[in-house]
From TrEMBL, chain A:
GO terms for molecular function: ATP binding; ATP hydrolysis activity. The keyword Transmembrane does not apply. SUPFAM superfamilies: P-loop containing nucleoside triphosphate hydrolases. Signal peptide: none annotated. CDD domains: ABC_Carb_Monos_I (cd03216). This is ABC transporter. Keywords: ATP-binding, Nucleotide-binding. Transmembrane segments: none annotated.
TrEMBL record, chain B:
Keywords: Cell membrane, Membrane, Transmembrane, Transmembrane helix. It is a multi-pass membrane protein. It is found in: Cell membrane. It comes from the Bacteria. The chain crosses the membrane at residues 28-51, 71-92, 104-123, 129-150, 162-181, 201-227, 256-276, 332-351. One of its GO terms (cellular component) is plasma membrane. It comes from Cellulomonas chitinilytica. Its main location: membrane. GO terms for molecular function: transmembrane transporter activity. The keyword Oxidoreductase does not apply. This is ABC transporter permease.
Amino acid sequence: MTTDAAPVPLLEVQGLTKRFGSLVANDDVTFTVRAGEVHGLLGENGAGKSTLVKSLYGIHQPDAGRVVVDGRDERIASPSHARDLGIGMVFQDMRLIPALTVWENIALQLRDTPRVLKPRDAQRAITDASAHYGLDVDPSALVRDLSIGEWQRAELLKVLLAGARVLILDEPTSVLTPQEADALFDVLRRLTADGVGVILIAHKIREVRQIADRVTVLRGGRTVLADTDPHELTDAELVRAMVGTSVKPVSRRPEPTDETADAPVVVSLRGASVLRPTGVLGLDGVDLDIRAGRILGVAGIAGSGQGELADLLVGVAPLRSGSMELPGLDARGTTTGDLRVAGVVDVVANPVHDYVVRGMTISDHVALWEATTAGRRRFDVRGAATTFARRDERAGLRAADPSRRLDQLSGGNIQRVLLTLALTQDARLVIASYPTRGLDVLTTERTHALLLEARDRGEAVVLVSEDLDELLALSDEVVVLHHGRVAGTVPAVDADRDRLGLLMTEGAA
Amino acid sequence: MSVLEKDPPKVVEPARATASGQPFWRRLLFVVAAYLLCLAVFAAFAATQGADPASIFTTMLQSSVLDWGTLQQTLVRSVPIVLAALACTIPARAGLVNVGGEGQIIMGSVAAVGVGLALGQAVGGPVAWLAIVAGAAVAGAVWCGICGFLRVRLNASESVTTLFFNFIAADVMLYVIYQVWREGDATSLPQSEPLTSDQLLPAVGGLQLTLAVPFMVLVVVGVWALLKYTSWGFRLTVAGGNPTAALRSGLPVRRILLGSMLAGGALAGIGGALNVMGAEGALRPGMTATFGYVAFLANFLGGSRPFPVLGAAVLFSAIANSGNGLQLSEGLNGSAVNVLLGLIVLTMLVVSGRTKEAFS
Ligand SMILES: Nc1ncnc2c1ncn2[C@@H]1O[C@H](COP(=O)(O)OP(=O)(O)OP(=O)(O)O)[C@@H](O)[C@H]1O
Ligand SMILES: [Mg+2]
């Protein structure tokens, strides 16, 4: 009864438990990672996926359980220890140093960094590796100038050149367009062909189907499915494993209409330009009418002016030239405070950086929201729990308990709190930037439904997304931004995808 | 019926495990050992200076807190330190670094004497006290507020400007002592004209414990309540915790930052006034004795929380006071205690760096 037929797995996790105070984030988790596989780690928001991989990368110390690397029991004390064991991780919030070039960032990380950096050697090693894995990125570019896709590729190179044989990716695709995600999967296939084992956290079933060889599903911190071939399961079974209940088929979305095409204009931009902090124009002479009762989709490759448009509409970024009229708003002025009171709310693109206040509870954030949207100077933290419970019931996003600290929630659960506030506001104008980023399947569905409900109530909705499917399914019309200019406006009914793609990459003809 | 669980997934009996993976007792052991080592190093230092390491600590305790008389001195002396430490606390909540407690105390003291002299013999008692405190508060607020203004308008680092303003304030005080309110002739010790005895704070309880001490406690409680229970304090915490979030919520972030600097400066100014009315009676070169810098450390040690800051400030005041005892009975230079102060701050840095929970 020898077992030498089965190769030793790269990584074995047995009975891993991790608590935060009285909260059990991981409860007796068991799974294995083999050489040459992509192992999907799935589960709804707050299931404990990030916590689990942080334990494997030495950021958290588990309270119980074993981690076996290459057949040896290890207590992974720190990230550098993890790297020594051949475990690498790409975080969702990127960890490169923006002021340095790509090769400098990578050279700093290598195990045998020479005392004096040799640019030529380092750059050659990087160029070789990027060719080998198909990770296209210019080694001498400054990191701060990279697009998010390039940034992620640089991060991957860094981890691979540090000698990772187990590669952990925490929701890498949530910031990527579907095309970029496909390119990433090609890279992952080359890596697994070299014998690397990949742990991939993802929420989209489509992506799991595309790339995962085996999956492990967590729910409430426990393993409900371990090391399973996803092809043995139907989509419905996969989703049931994640959320623990069978999902009712979602009611068909209403078709986009032209009936509201001449609905009242809420905000009107004429020749609107906005400067970036770097001094270049982020938004450049944009004409746009945002109408009540319609969803205006905003498409474009990352950094084409979506952020500046959102900032302008909420009054955070000043106009450099052009005009912004607010015929549909009863606003006292154009400061952020005035606009909020007049019913302009937004779901920020990066809530962790731009919304979460360190150390504060959900109730605190709710009190801040209620006061600033009502134009009150008094903050009612005690009453916040009640109003939030009402909003939570109405939104149905199952937000966390209001007494919890927002900065300690999982990424998706932070997003749920913000969505619960913004989409139950009965606003005049909602700017939703990447609203479903990091959300699990069910919550994504529910959020889409809430956006449509807001539209049907007569709110003007601006939806920024990198996912064309999402944009076309929800929007009444889609405006394409390219280098800060409007490249074209396309009705969402019978939209021509190829034309949209061309507008995004090439701009107006 | 939905079986969907809400986040949090599940609750079990509380465990005292920390994110850094160390059990509680090991962290405690580390902290205790660190501070014992700190005291040991100081004892060794004292021994090299010819003092008896066995008795210095009892001497220090005797000359700072164990004796009713010296305890009063310690408390009186802590008044300007506590107030100037709170002057760091409030801006720190808004994410600003006020290193200018020293200058703000000085400007408060100058204003206090100015108001007192202007009132002269005619006005004394509570009316004079209030007027003097108000004048000092305005002076401190203006001094700190200028730096706040430079910060929110020109983005000039407040930690640098407040520091510079300390040196300017010191010169302003010397100028008024020598040129404006000089008392006596050129041969006597330089000092400004004093407040009238009606303008000095009366003693309560003991001989030296003036009204300034209970007033200081009142201020600490007030600042605590302000930060914890008022909308003003809430706004401050939001602006300090995440300025972008505050801006995007439509809060007037610049006004909030400026307000925190004005409030901080006012407190330090009041500290200066209480020091003049309760202890000094007049302006004298060097009278503030680096209170402002010690206060900065006290705020740091207290983690910008009013009550711990109060404790730290009184501790520092006690250490400073114990220098007298060391000088008298151990033959050590009184400033030797500054070594202990430095060691404590160093230890505290190490301890907090080592035991901080690793969030990521
Ligand atoms: N540092 C922390 N302190 C306290 N609780 C924490 C901490 N980190 C995570 N948690 C809690 O542990 C649970 C699991 O969080 P985790 O981030 O692992 O979820 P996740 O599966 O990655 O979810 P998502 O899909 O939203 O990213 C959540 O309830 C979260 O609030
Ligand atoms: Mg996560």
